[in-house]
Every structure is written in C-alpha cells, then in structure tokens.
Amino acid sequence: MKKNAVLPLALAGIASLTLASTASAHDIPDRYGYLGGHVSQYWFEKNEMGPNGYDEVTLPGLQAGLRFHPNWSFQAWWERNQAHTRQTGDKSYISNLLGSVRYHFNDTSVLGFEPYAGIAAGQLRFDHGRSAKDDTETVAGFEFGAQARIARHFILDVGARPVWTEWNDRIEGEIYAGLNIVFGATSKPVAPVEPAVLDDDNDGVPNELDQCPNTPAGVAVDEKGCPLDSDGDGVPDYLDRCPDTPAGALVDEHGCQQYLEQDIRETLYVEFELDKAEIRQEFIGELNTLADWMKKYPNAQVTLEGHTDSTGRVAYNQTLSERRAESVKNTLVSSFNVDPSRITTSGRGPSQPIADNKTAEGRAQNRRVEVVIKATKREALFENN
C-alpha cells in the first residue's frame, strides 16, 4: 500500500477506539437484516490523478445488508457527494457503489465491539457535468471494522477500507461510520451458566457431599468422598499393608491382623438348670461377646470346658458337663456362624467348683462353661514389621 493510503487506516483506528469508549454495547444477534446510513472520508492518490486531481471527499450514503450466519454477512453500499479539483476548482460528483462480504468474529469483544474483516468490490464514478465525459472505474479492496449494538434495534458500525482502483493502478482508501436499523433478529439461546462446583481435595466428590474433605491427592474414594477400604478393617486401602484381613479381625494402624500374645481364660456365665444342658435364652448375650472375640482373632482356637455342681453321681456329671460344652459350641456355630473347626470341647464334671455346693446359689454358679482362647504364633506378614 502506498504511503498516502496509511492515513485513512490510522484515522479509522482512532475513530473506532473513540466510539468504543462511549458506546453501550449489547450482544449482536446471530442473524438479522438491516438498513442504515453512513458517512465516510475518502482519500485519493493525488500523485496518480495528476496535478488537477482530487485530495479527499466526504461521502454520505446508504447501506443495506443481511447477516445470514453467525460469522458471515453481505452488504450493499452506496455513497455520493460533490468534490472540486485542487487547482481549477472544477466541480464533479463522486459516487461509490460497492458490495462486500464480511467475516464476523462473533465470539470476540474489543472494548465492547465485535470485530470483522471482509472483501469489497464495485465502481467509483466521476460525474463531471455537461462540460466533460463521465468516468467510471472498477475498485476492489479489504474492509476492517467493528460493530456494537447500542440499542435494541440499532447497531453502530465503524471501520476502514483500503482499495485498489483501476485507473493508473492507484491505492486509495476511506474510513467510515454507519448506523444500521436491525430487523428480523434471531439469536441462538445461550445455555445457562452452571454454578461452579467446589471440590477442595479434587477427589471428584463436591464439598457439600464430601464426608472426608481432606483426602490425599490421587487416592480412590467412594461416593461419600472417603478413601476405599476394601477389607472393611477401618484402615483405607492406600495405607493398608494387609489388604485381605478377615472381616471383623482386630488390626493395627497398618491394617494388619493382631494376634493374642497369651491365652485368655474367661468364665462364660451361661448357667444351666439342674440336670439340663440347654442354654437359657437370657444368656445368649454372653455368647455374642465370645463370638466377637473370635472374629477379632480369627486364627485363635477356643476350648470350651463344661462344669457341673456336685449333685448326683460323678460319672453322670462328667457326661452332663460334656453335653453343656457341646451345647455352647452348637449355638456359636448355628447362631453366630463360627467355624466349628476352631472350637474344642471338654467336660470337667464337678471337679472344679467356683462356689460352695452346699447352697443353691453356689450350685447354680458351678453349672457353667469356662472359655479358654488360645494364643497363636504371630506370622511374619512383611519384613521389618
């Protein structure tokens, strides 16, 4: 582009920024038609038009267009005004008729304006009156500008147009400002903006549902935002060194099973009626406590020792004490799902009383079952534990 054509572009840029700073821009529709008026300042390449050529001219005019796509539009442009030659002052009427195709950057906003770029082509006409023959020449060039919707039905359009002209292969240009009246506007519905979901520990569970809000990064969690615990031992998988602990087993802070260090002997207060081996209903809770112990130490073996009071023959009481131990074992297996292979039974008869057999209360206490939970050798679960 020749040097004199730089001025229109510079002035167009200044005009765009000045108008942008004061315009109240609204969203421009995706599709619409328009009619409007404009005023432009056209600069001629005076060195190519001869010493009696034109310098510049202000051209008012009209325009109409159709934006048929969110990014594309077509515009027809006409403008006309009187101009005088530099030396002789001869009067002519200059008309400019153009058609242009524009690309709109509809997702971009510059100071509230939507920018566009396009190509234009048409005719520049010089009407010299009766004294001389009229001149017509082909023009083509580019458009650069920006638009803002300043009211419901009005769009402000400012820009610049450098053009090539046929006669003497000139490069000229103009800046313009137009006001368009919009009709038939349509826009694609804007999807509502979803509120931001806060998830401070980035585990995929929002804060409002996260019951474990400080989960370490990268740890797998459940729907509550808590670290997974596949074996249900209370130690999450990412800390669990023994991930297959039996259900209910007592574990340490590493999720590894704990073992009894020494035998435990407890009196199971399951009292029996005279000459009976059936467990009375009110003593079932005592067996529940024993079943819990066996779950905590799934490798421990249990010995059940049946006892009787001194009433009756010793041989009969021996058999009765064995039946009482077996009765407790059967209840543990059937009601608490204890593995029968872990339970050994024996009968002690009346040989180990814990109360005075001379009283009814003492004899009731002696009709009992003793529990011995055997300590098991702890296995080496991992090195340097």
TrEMBL record:
Keywords: Cell outer membrane, Ion transport, Membrane, Porin, Signal, Transmembrane, Transmembrane beta strand, Transport. Residues 339-349 have a biased composition (Polar residues). Its main location: membrane. Pfam families: OMP_b-brl, OmpA, TSP_3. PROSITE patterns: OMPA_2. Residues 339-363 are annotated as: Disordered. Residues 1-25 form the signal peptide. CDD domains: OmpA_C-like. It is found in: Cell outer membrane. Residues 259-377 form the OmpA-like domain. Gene3D superfamilies: 2.40.160.20, OmpA-like domain, TSP type-3 repeat. It is a multi-pass membrane protein. PANTHER family: LIPOPROTEIN YIAD-RELATED, STATOR ELEMENT OF FLAGELLAR MOTOR COMPLEX. This is OmpA family protein. It comes from Isoalcanivorax beigongshangi.
